[in-house]
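Worked Example 4.2. Consider the chain below.
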Amino acid sequence: MRGMRARAFAFAAAAAILVTACSTTGTPSGGGTTAGDQGKPFVFASTQFSPVTEQENMRKKILAAYQGASVDFVTDNEPTILNRISAEAKAGGEQQIGLAGLENGQFAALVAAGAFDDVTKIADKHKDQKIPQDMLTLGKFGGNAQVYIPWMQATYFMVASKQALQYLPSGADVNALTYQQTIAWAKNIFDKTGQKKFGFPLGTDGLIHRLIQGYFYPSYTGGLVTTYKSADAATMWNDMKELWKYSNPQSTTYARLQEPLQSGDIWLGIDHVARLIDVLKAKPDDFVAVPAPAGPKGRYYMSVVIGLGIPKASPNKAGAEALIDYLLKPETQIVTLRENSFFPVVDVKMPSDLNKGLQLEADAVAKQANSKDAKVVPLPVGLGGKGGEF
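Applying the procedure from the previous section yields the following structure tokens:
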């Protein structure tokens, strides 16, 4: 994907995923009595960048060149962040959270409560950066007000060790696999080596629920929720049961597949871009990154759009706007990609010196989005108290 532009990623519908996190408050970034000072300090609260390394990258690298008001980047799990924003909105007046970085679906719970300012003017200011219109539309939630400004995007795809390529089923294209071919691939590996080399992210913090919701079910049934009880769904579960026969039983402990891929415990697996990047950076010549498999109904995949919203209780709205401007700069978007593996939403040319591992991810994302049978999964939003159960 050298030279490809970020808006090449197809976003035809809404999608959001849950990234769980540990409550963390870090050393304030930015600020000081500089020419760019934007007044009162504020909290930048987000459900993203929960791993310690990602938090440090955010504070020390992504925000390093920011010269506005002092910002305290805080990451926590979804309920904690949303409850805090809601509580501050109900309290009224100026509170602590000046800017919120949330997934599309996480904003939905707060839209009805009117917790955020209309940021249409900020969106208009950034028209020249060519943020995809469908992303901006997602941020309106069916209304006229722009609730958030798209910040970054991510998805899931498959990574395979090159050791596994010799066992591909006859006639299979690694860049256009079906689930049936993936099962046959894992079976071939087992039959030839005696080892179960497929991996699922089934650990406590694994994202298997997003693979079930955004990949397995829709690829087999063409729907979500309403198609749970169907013959097509039964076929899907039978196929997953078959794939499990050739999967490493330690999958029940895997939160992120990059570790077992790097150790060689598994050779194949599907996971989130940020949970695969370490192995691709460490051993870019040993792995291939390819689109997720297709089912009978198509190559369904989940795309994640993260947005920036300004709470009505923000203590420094001008400062929050300045931070949005900074985060949308092409150079900041590239630093975010380099350090934390989330892809740009603005029109930006990928650098020629992009890390090999990131280039593998970028290529996989492009191939997946541009596959002739690709279909983006819209996740239901506004489920309220049932959201966690879902």
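The chain has two domains: 6-154+304-353, 155-301. Confidence is low (pLDDT under 50) at residues 1-25, 31-35. Compare this with Example 4.1 before moving on.
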